[in-house]
Amino acid sequence: MQLEQYVSQHGDTFHFSREQASLFAKRIADDFNPIHDVDAKRFCVPGDLLFTVALSELGLQESMNIRFADMVTENTELHFKSAETGQHDIRDEADKVYLSIEASGNRSDKREQNLKLAEQYVAFSGKTFPHVLVPLWKEHNVMVNPARPLVIYESMTLSMETLDFDTPTIALSGSSLEVNGKRGNVRLDIEITEKDKVIGRGQKRMLLSGLKPYDQDAIDDLITFYDQRKIDLA
Questions:
Q1: What's 182's DSSP letter?
Q2: Domain limits of the chain?
Q3: 197, 108 in Cβ contact below 8 A?
Q4: Which of 53, 122, 123, 132 has its CA 20 to 30 A from that of 191?
Q5: Quick check: 195 and 170 in contact, CB under 8 A?
Q6: How far is CA 108 from CA 53, 57, 165, in A?
Q7: Which tens digits make up the pLDDT trace of 41-55?
Q8: Residue 63 scores a pLDDT above 80
């Protein structure tokens, strides 16, 4: 991955244009959510792009807890702010926090290696819809509103058993959905392997809002719409 294509850095600050963030979503994450389109009214930089930049700049540590605090729009000037406690934030010029990382343990500053892991994670993350979410919705007889799907990327964790790897792969090891009225909490468990040996584990958590009863016809229409966007915008 040539990360420089997707972020503009100026000394200690960086930002993302709509074109850069949209290209990352489609080319690296295989994510065709309209919120990442260049002409979207409510444009949002993919959270996985923030994570990738953080891993590139801060390095990979044995334990990492990442929380997404707010959505980043285009050309927002950002910087890292770190504390001796091991907490690192991505903030804007007004000191607003967009992403926080609590990290501990040994650290690897091998940028190319870390970007390989980030690319694998982003590729996995981009397959969440429909491959993972739709079966969970069907199981619990709920779904998001197709006209205004509210799926919020809340947090992720990584727990590495080794920081020495070459070609990691990431796969789903478990999933769950807790429904509370019109809101839901999704948890995805992952395993990180290399040559069939587990080298790490992690979790991805998402919040769902505006849930309604499951409707297979509406789901089929949503998947068709999504798949057609991938064809049209690829």
A1: T
A2: 3-233
A3: no
A4: 53
A5: no
A6: 15, 11, 11
A7: 889 999 999 999 999
A8: yes
What residues contact 175, with CB distance under 8 A and at least 6 apart?
132, 136, 186, 187, 188, 189
- What H or E segment, with its residue span, contains residue 19? helix 18-27
Half-sphere exposure of 144 (CA within 13 A, CB side): 24
Inter-CA distances, 125 with 62, 109, 148, 206, 213, Å: 20, 23, 20, 11, 25
> Of 76, 103, 80, 75, which is closest to residue 91 (Cα–Cα)?
80
Q: Percent of the chain scored above 70 by pLDDT?
A: 100
Q: What is the pLDDT of residues 195-204, one digit of tens each?
A: 999 999 999 9
Please, which residues bridge with residue 187 across strands? 176, 205
pTM: 0.92
**Residue range 9-21: average pLDDT?**
95
Look up the CATH number of domain 3-233. Answer: 2.40.160
- Count of CB atoms situated within 10 Å of the CB of 221: 12
Quick: pLDDT tens for 95-142: 999 999 999 999 999 999 999 999 999 999 888 888 899 999 999 999
